[in-house]
Write a structure and sequence with these properties.
CATH architecture: Roll
Strand content: 25-35%
CATH topology: PH-domain like
Number of domains: 1
Helix content: 40-55%
CATH class: Mainly Beta
Number of strands: 7
Radius of gyration: 19 Å
Order of helices and strands: EHHEEEEEEH
Length: 135
């Protein structure tokens, strides 16, 4: 059975999206060609950031894979749960937010910011243990 976890939107992410939008609006307001180009680039950046915030999902599949989809514009990352060495909850500097650090393979790692970190870690460890018992 597949289990999908949604991405958690943090305050720093919201603040950065608002700042980029405000800068784009300010640059459009100037109406100079260079400013309009900069504003257009900032708008594209802002749309892609919002898209990533809204559409990022973490799916644990029945066949032992973790599929990290970071929006429609980014490629998916697929991690085999058999290769996962460590799953731990960490804090960002100044404890602004929590994230899950997933160490796998030979010196590879990725992060996940799910809406429920504890349930995500518990489900991953349960599935990893189940895979280990099958071997």
């Amino acid at each position: 059975m597949n289990r999908t976890f949604a991405h958690r939107v943090t305050l720093p992410a919201i603040v950065s999206v608002v700042i980029i939008a405000a800068l784009a609006l300010f640059f459009f307001w100037q109406r100079k060609p260079a400013m309009v180009v900069a504003a257009t680039l900032l708008t594209v950046l802002d749309v892609s950031a919002i898209e990533r915030l809204i559409h990022t999902t973490y799916t644990l599949t029945a066949d032992g894979l973790l599929i990290i989809s970071r929006g429609r514009f980014a490629s998916r990352r697929v991690v085999s749960l058999e290769k996962v060495k460590e799953v731990s909850v960490r804090h960002a500097p100044f404890r602004l937010y929590r994230y899950v650090l997933i160490e796998y393979g030979s010196n590879s790692e990725t992060t996940a910011m799910t809406d429920n970190d504890d349930a995500f870690v518990h489900e991953m460890r349960k599935r990893i243990k189940k895979l280990d018992n099958e071997d």
